[in-house]
Amino acid sequence: MNAWLLAAAVLLTAGLPPCGWVVLRTEPHERVAGLNLASVITAVALLLMSQGFGRTSYQDLALVLSVTGPAGILVFARFLGGRGRDALTPPDAADDANDAAARTADAGHPRHTDGGR
């Protein structure tokens, strides 16, 4: 094991678990930051392994990851945008009753759909 591989091992073992914790346990905007940092750490680790093993194909993987990583994070942010932890939990019966009461209150007010004629 040379210094390049040691640096990659340290980076992966010390850098990725905190990112995983942030992705699994925090608010959505912090999850996106943790995912972005994990993508950067993985790309740097691939570059270090490329030097350690003497293989240029790992540099290609790091390049592809550095291009597709932010795009994947944008897709993740778009997919979960505007939804918090409350959106992932099933609604209660009390919420259903409140929704039904709001619908009956709105039913008493007719809406004009004839364009104002």
UniProtKB/TrEMBL annotation:
Originating species: Streptantibioticus silvisoli
Keywords noted in UniProt: Cell membrane, Membrane, Transmembrane, Transmembrane helix
Protein name: MrpF/PhaF family protein
Transmembrane parts of this sequence: 31-49, 61-81
One Gene Ontology cellular component annotation held by this UniProt entry: plasma membrane
Pfam short name (any one): MrpF_PhaF
Region ranges (Disordered): 88-117
Membrane topology qualifier: Multi-pass membrane protein
Single GO term (MF): monoatomic ion transmembrane transporter activity
Coiled coil: none
Compositional bias segments (type: Basic and acidic residues): 106-117
InterPro entries: MrpF/PhaF-like
Cellular compartment(s): Cell membrane
